[in-house]
Amino acid sequence: MRAGVFAYRDRRRRRRDFRRLWIIRLSAAVRQYDLRYSEFIHGLQLAKVELDRKQLSEMAIADPAAFQQIVESVKKHLVAA
Predict the structure, then answer these.
(1) For the purposes of burial, counting CB atoms within 10 Å of the CB of 71, is it exposed (0-12), middle (13-18) or buried (19 or more)?
(2) What ranges do the domains of the chain cover?
(3) pLDDT, tens digit, 9 for 90 and up, residues 5-27
(4) pTM of structure
(5) CA 26 to CA 20: how far, in whole Å?
(6) Which CATH superfamily is domain 2-80 in?
(7) pLDDT by residue (tens digit) across 16-72?
(8) Residues 43, 78 contacting (CB under 8 angstroms)
(9) How far apart are CA 77 and CA 81, in angstroms?
(10) What is the C-alpha to C-alpha distance for residues 35 and 44, in angstroms, rounded to an integer?
(11) 74 to 4, 43, 62: CA distances (angstroms)
């Protein structure tokens, strides 16, 4: 019983921890382009980019050129708004 309770609790905690990790990675990545995380997320919504935080953080690490294109698109939509 006790192990089941811990397993249930920690499955939820793992999701929370990974979301925090993705947000930290994205925040660090967009700082290089003179944006804050909150501005970046708002710009993604304006640009109608439907990538989640996990995909974006992986892209920032593995494919910086593609991530830079997304950031430029976000900046363009933030200026227009």
Answers:
(1) buried
(2) 2-80
(3) 999 999 999 999 999 999 999 99
(4) 0.89
(5) 10
(6) Ribosomal protein L20, C-terminal domain (1.10.1900.20)
(7) 999 999 999 999 999 999 999 999 999 999 999 999 999 999 999 999 999 999 999
(8) yes
(9) 6
(10) 12
(11) 44, 5, 19
CA distance 63 to 29: 12
Three-state SS for the chain is CHHHHHHHHHHHHHHHHHHHHHHHHHHHHHHCCCCCHHHHHHHHHHHCCCCCHHHHHHHHHHCHHHHHHHHHHHHHHHHHC
